Amino acid sequence: MDKQHMAGIDGDQWAQCVREKGWLWDAASGKASATLILAHGAGAPMDSDWMNDMTARLVAQGVNVLRFEFPYMAQRRVDGSKRPPNPMPRLLECWREVYDQVRRHVTGTLAIGGKSMGGRVASMLADELGADALVCLGYPFYAVGKPEKPRVEHLAALKTRTLIVQGERDALGNREAVEGYALSPSIEVFWLVAGDHDLKPLKASGFSHEQHLALAAKRVADVVRAVS
Q1: Domain limits of the chain?
Q2: Per-residue pLDDT tens for 36-89?
Q3: Which residues pair with 108 in a beta bridge?
Q4: What sign has the CA pseudo-torsion 36, 39, 45, 50?
Q5: What is the DSSP track for 116-147?
Q6: pLDDT for 47-62, tens place per residue?
Q7: Is the pTM higher than 0.85?
Q8: 162: β partners
Q9: Are 186 and 158 a contacting pair, CB within 8 Å?
Q10: For 11-226, CATH number?
Q11: 59: nearest Cα among 102, 36, 29
């Protein structure tokens, strides 16, 4: 199949699917080079300021972005009650369901990924799903304060082309700790100077949050274009 992106055979069917599922679809500015399914992190929804900002940047770089919510977050939208993430099996099931639906409608390069937890769950399925690329924005390599208990076993054997954009001082995966882990050669870790879990740098670094977000979006777009 030609990798050139098309939003399904019937655009109306795709639009209806997005509406029925409660997803957010942002089409690329101009000709699309790829589509990225972008999942939210544990504590903020798919339309948080951070997710909205990153989506806008990716769209401007020629990448279509589809956002969805895990069941616990979708329920919060209904009743306003905060709750912890679903058990991992349910999160994985949700990702599989979303990918299957999107793949039916969207041809061409299809990458998966997300912010923090959303990216981690995607990383556990990337090879299984046959995704063209994996993008993790602020990967939670370990729980806060526990670098000696990393969540990286599956990353050693990952085959999918992977980009992890990580702040050097991320409390869930700082540079010193992460560089000591055994990661698959298919994984590129793109470090942002003095960045935190939201990629925000210290003022003393000489970089701004705006600059780091722009660098992150450009690198993501470059990677997904490279597999097109």
Answers
A1: 11-226
A2: 999 999 999 999 999 999 999 999 999 999 999 999 999 999 999 999 999 999
A3: none
A4: negative
A5: THHHHHHHTTHHHHT-SEEEEES---SSTT-T
A6: 999 999 999 999 999 9
A7: yes
A8: 134, 187
A9: yes
A10: 3.40.50.1820
A11: 29
